[in-house]
Amino acid sequence: QVQLVESGGGLVQAGGSLRLSCAASGSIGSINAMGWYRQAPGKQRELVASITNDGRTNYADSVKGRFTISRDNAKNTVYLQMNSLKPEDTAVYYCNAEIRYITYVTYRDYWGQGTQVTVSS
Description:
Layout: E1 2-7, E2 10-13, E3 18-26, E4 28-39, E5 46-51, E6 57-59, E7 67-72, E8 77-82, E9 91-101, E10 108-111, E11 115-120
Parallel strand pairs: 2-11
Antiparallel strand pairs: 1-3, 3-8, 4-5, 4-9, 5-6, 7-8, 9-10, 9-11
């Protein structure tokens, strides 16, 4: 069994910062890309940022220059540092990872339970 557990969400004023963490645990063979998605009320889930296992990153245009994604491969953990937060960043943030279960040869997507980020104006 594989699990993703997120932490770090909360309430912050506009202009503030938050750091999200997501740790993968369980019978993990290997992990490819990891990333963060978000879903605001009434909107579709969207990619915020992703990072490959060799450190290549990709960001949504709306967060470029404000958010930074990083990972610690030894800890199977991905982080999202969010600075200069805006009210429009308010959403539930979900961690995602492409993980190969220890006895499998293929990868599949795993999702965290989500963590609420609320930015007040």
